[in-house]
Design a protein that fits this description.
The protein has 335 residues and is mainly beta. 5% of the residues lie in helices and 42% in strands. Strand 8 and strand 9 form a beta hairpin. The protein is rod-shaped, with a radius of gyration of 63 Å. The two termini are 121 Å apart.
Length: 335
């Protein structure tokens, strides 16, 4: 409770009253109410005298031309004073003794002015009734309650509490072949986070798979990481090339392509592979020719001691020439 300073003023010998204010606060009363803290003035009325002159002045009482009770209304604690409990004349407003304790409101109904005061109370002035607003603690800041008086605005902080501290939950990101791992710690209360517990990258774990070279394509080894699937090619080798035996590649089965000269004669390397020279005059009896699997018609090729001749125009297809005497064949393609 704030200390109260009571100021008693005695004006001449006509009336006496008491003003009460909060110590340390100089109330500025307007129509009986402090315009700063809302305190209501307290006066002590004499037994026979009228209301103090400063109240009459604020009500502009002297300007009334008719001092009938209808022009001045007095209430106590919100209820009109009964007839006969006060009197009005040109000399003032008189509340008959004993005035009675309470909150008085005097109204000049002609001028529309009021004055409020208290009578007979040990009023201590404005007593702050505080409204509390609590600021909860956070992870990093303590909490407290701010108490504020809604009338005068006075406030103070109290009921301090400590900061809660973070409540971290970890989520681990495992390392990969190329990136290190770590754990992210996130506060479940405020969302603050940081990374820790770092680990190094694992590195790749490659497994090789070799593609052998072919007659036309080079070979190589594909290395694939068994962890992440990353891959690369290395250890390249050149293509083998065809290995033709009697016109057919021994590795891939490709058939050699032959371009005959204008007279349709078979090249010497074909004749040599067939041991054609060993046939002599019997060549015509021991050489057979097929085109696309069918024997060639009589007259479509000619055989003599000089060689084998496909009569122009030479048809495209797969030819097989056979030395039936020694059982040798030579296969080729004419495009």
């Amino acid at each position: 409770m704030k200390k109260i300073l009571a100021l008693t003023l005695v004006l001449a010998t006509i009336f006496a009253f008491t003003l009460t204010a909060v110590a340390g606060h100089a109330c500025n009363y307007v129509a009986g109410i402090c315009d700063s803290c809302g305190n209501i003035i307290v006066i002590t009325l004499p037994e026979k005298d009228s209301l103090p002159k400063f109240i009459l002045d604020e009500l502009k009482f002297s300007q009334l031309k008719n001092y009938a009770n209808a022009n001045v209304v007095i209430t106590r604690d919100g209820e009109p004073l009964p007839n006969g409990s006060y009197n009005i004349n040109k000399n003032g407003i008189f509340i008959k003794a004993p005035a009675g304790e309470g909150l008085y409101v005097v109204t000049n109904t002609v001028a529309g002015l009021t004055y409020t005061f208290r009578v007979g109370e040990e009023e201590t002035g404005h007593v702050c009734v505080y409204t509390a607003v609590t600021l909860d603690p956070t992870c990093t800041e303590g909490g407290y309650t701010t108490y504020t008086c809604p009338v005068c605005g006075d406030s103070y902080d109290d009921d301090f509490t400590e900061a809660l501290g973070h409540s971290y939950v970890g989520e681990t990101l495992d390392p990969t072949c190329t990136e290190g791992g770590y754990t992210t710690y996130t506060c479940s209360v405020c969302g603050d986070s940081y990374d820790d517990d770092f680990t190094e990258a694992l590195g790749h774990s490659y497994v090789g798979e070799t593609i052998d070279p072919t007659c036309t394509e080079g070979g190589y080894t594909t290395y694939t990481c068994s962890v992440c699937g990353d891959s690369y090619d290395d250890d390249f080798t050149e293509a083998l090339g065809h290995d033709y035996i009697n016109g057919v590649c021994s590795r891939c089965g490709d058939i050699i392509l032959v371009v005959l000269p204008g007279d349709g004669s078979l090249p010497p390397d074909i004749l040599n592979a067939l041991r054609f020279a060993e046939l002599g005059n019997a060549a015509s009896f021991n050489i057979s020719v097929t085109l696309n699997g069918a024997p060639m018609a009589n007259g479509s090729f000619n055989i003599n001691s000089f060689g084998v001749f496909i009569k122009p125009p030479v048809a495209a297809g797969t030819y097989v020439v056979t030395n039936t005497l020694v059982g040798l064949s030579y296969t080729f393609i004419i495009a």
